[in-house]
């Protein structure tokens, strides 16, 4: 009897999908005896195999199901062979943190807006209904992948009021209001 170690001959490409969509991953392997194929999600929360089959179907995918999926082909002739497929789940922004802040006149003040989104959110700030421009006197806007920081170097009475942070990506946008007060 000739034995042949397992070899993955075909595997799905990395994929990017909107939350709620359906994903179908394929992993084909050869070997003798025929290899057993298993799929698992490489994630701290994952437990064991999610499929013991060449195909892995995920319907209504959630953001928690993004990440790497590993296909393993084993037939006891040699060590199992493994390959991974990256699944990116896109979702619209949601603002996880936006707190009002009290700052005395003459002090430095910071308003922070944290948002989770894939692809990363773009941020904009408004005071009442007026958009704040980068480089406005006495103000600094710092945008990172998951948050935006609005810094007032020297708070004046005119700075007090209602501010809105808008986070947006291709899938949608959301906003949160906060107050800078004395």
From TrEMBL:
Entry-linked Pfam families: ig, Ig_3
Matching InterPro entries: Ig-like_dom (IPR007110), Ig-like_dom_sf (IPR036179), Ig-like_fold (IPR013783), Ig_sub (IPR003599), Ig_sub2 (IPR003598), IgLON_domain (IPR050876), Immunoglobulin_dom (IPR013151)
GO cellular component: plasma membrane; side of membrane
One Gene Ontology biological process: cell adhesion
Location in or out of the cell: Cell membrane
PROSITE patterns linked to this entry: IG_LIKE
Residue ranges of domain Ig-like in the record: 6-88, 92-181
UniProt keywords, alphabetically: Cell adhesion, Cell membrane, Disulfide bond, Glycoprotein, GPI-anchor, Immunoglobulin domain, Lipoprotein, Membrane, Repeat, Signal
Transmembrane segments: none
Record flagged with keyword Membrane: yes
SMART domains: IG, IGc2
Membrane topology recorded in Swiss-Prot or TrEMBL: Lipid-anchor; GPI-anchor
Family: Belongs to the immunoglobulin superfamily. IgLON family.
Entry protein name: Protein CEPU-1
Organism: Balearica regulorum gibbericeps
């Amino acid at each position: 009897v000739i034995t042949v170690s397992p070899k993955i001959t075909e595997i799905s490409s990395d994929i990017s999908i909107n939350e709620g969509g359906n994903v179908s991953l394929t992993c084909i392997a050869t070997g003798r005896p025929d290899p057993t194929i298993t799929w698992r999600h490489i994630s701290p929360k994952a437990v064991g195999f999610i499929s013991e089959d060449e195909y892995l179907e995920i319907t209504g995918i959630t953001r928690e199901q993004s990440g790497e999926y590993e296909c393993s082909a084993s037939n006891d002739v040699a060590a199992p062979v493994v390959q991974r497929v990256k699944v990116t789940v896109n979702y619209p922004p949601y603002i996880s943190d936006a707190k009002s802040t009290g700052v005395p006149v003459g002090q430095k003040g910071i308003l922070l807006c944290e948002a989770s989104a894939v692809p990363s959110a773009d941020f904009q700030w408004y005071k009442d209904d007026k958009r704040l421009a980068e480089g406005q006197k006495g103000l600094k806007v710092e945008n990172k992948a998951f948050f935006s920081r609005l810094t007032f170097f020297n708070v004046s009475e005119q700075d007090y009021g209602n501010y809105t942070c808008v986070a947006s990506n291709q899938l949608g946008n959301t906003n949160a209001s906060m107050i800078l007060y004395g």
